[in-house]
Amino acid sequence: MNHYTSKNFALTKSVGFLLNKARNLVVTEIDAAFKEVDITAQQMGVLFSMKSGMASTPFELSKLLSIDTGLMTRLLDKLEAKQLLERFRSVDDRRVVNLKLTAKGNAIADRIPEISPHVLNARLKNFTKEEFEELIRLLGKFIGDSE
Q1: Any idea where the HTH marR-type domain is (predicted)?
Q2: Domain range for residue 82?
Q3: What is the CATH number of the domain that holds 21?
Q4: What pTM did the predictor assign?
Q5: Angle at CA 40, nearest 5°, toward 35 and 45?
Q6: Which of 7, 21, 24, 63 has the fewest C-beta atoms under 10 angstroms from its C-beta?
């Protein structure tokens, strides 16, 4: 089913516009919340993905976070410069770069579950439990998440 046509399309009513605006609001609020630990929302995603064991290579992170490899390289460069992670070549396949959180990176990653919920809960304060669960379900369906 086509939900949009050339006759009914309006920028501020498009799913892309609304998703982008929602994303920008959350990123701005997450960035502000993590200012004290000197990381951004994108850097938080990398650190927490690694801490959670969801990714350990730049390729896995790029795929998980839907970030192109060029941006991922720049993100990793910044995190490495802040001494939050280390890169090293795989002993089995020198083409593969593995990532490891440093002690400092682990300490910041440990704080993520303490900080992030406050930001997200403030944004979701007017949602009922059922609306929240439906939002998660619909966003999962939108992105093609099979879970």
Answers
A1: 8-144
A2: 15-143
A3: 1.10.10.10
A4: 0.88
A5: 130
A6: 7
